[in-house]
Amino acid sequence: MAGAVRSVRLGMPLFTRRLTPVSPRRAGGVLALCSRDPVLFLPLAQQLERWRHWGSGDVVVLGRPAAPDAAAWSTGSLIVMGLAPRPELGLPGAGRVGAQALAEHARPRLTRNGSILGSPEDVSLLWERLEAAGMRYREARWNQPVLIAPSPPGGLAAQAVARRPSLDWAARGTRRARPEEEPLVLPASVAMFTEEVGYDPISSGGSYARHVSWLVGEGRSYVLLDDGQGRPARPGGPARVAFKVDVGGIWHAPDGAVAQLTGVWTRPDLRGRGVGSAALAAAVDAVRQEHVGPDGGVSLYVNDFNAPAQALYHSLGFTQHGAFATVML
After folding, report:
1. How far does Cα 178 stand from its chain's mean position?
2. How far apart are CA 221 and CA 223, in angstroms?
3. What is the pLDDT of residues 68-112, one digit of tens each?
4. Which of 101, 160, 177, 270 could form a disulfide with 221 if both were Cys (CB 3.0 to 4.6 A apart)?
5. Are 112 and 136 in contact (CB under 8 A)?
6. Cβ atoms within 10 A of the Cβ of 12, count?
């Protein structure tokens, strides 16, 4: 197999199946694989479409590059799709041999504070081998339900406000963050990340701040500003971020565009008052209008132990479509 990535021993029996690196010019097969389930495979497809150049070994496949059985984005973090069988999608899976080959490839690339994302079955197959090779995780979240937003007539925000008219200000005020508001957005993003992941992302350098700046610049960060007291912010008056959400992934798949929301956050003093529900509903409507079209899919994923967040999403009519697992290193 010309150009295949050679396996490296991890203190386990060395299998013969190897990975093939894929260049941007040969990414069509990986995108075809992702199109089998655009919602669940969006994280991988988004990486391929966002980056026009990547290094050798950053994208790898098992099977023929034109029709792979499995694929992965393998840098300091790993996104893996297709290791486990998915009969309902016609995917045989790359199995244990493929998991071993990918583990050997990914282990020297994974970095501290990196992560591994995929379906629970894919991540479990891979982690079993990485753990046997001596890797340890900081935290593992094995069941993160992936939810899809409904698309009711008139929009999701109208439905939310009809139930609680007093929250009309939150729905009407939710919009794309403006570049000049980045100094407000960054602290809210850092608070969300620290609460969700467990460490301050600013402490590890400037990459997180650059990511937030990119989201704002691309029109992919949505915010609701208030006066700090749960009332609409007035021009020239004090303003704080009451709610934020980012469009972490967008993919214009062959059968329709899909988006994945990330970084959902409501300021702690406003939680339990319905503000986050109305603002999220408005953000879903805006993402459809501005990014994926009225028929586009809008999804997010949530930790199974986060009961308040799950209750919020289900109250808006989100329904489950599979699950992710994340291992944080």
Report:
1. 22
2. 7
3. 999 999 999 999 999 999 999 999 999 889 999 999 999 999 998
4. 177
5. no
6. 12
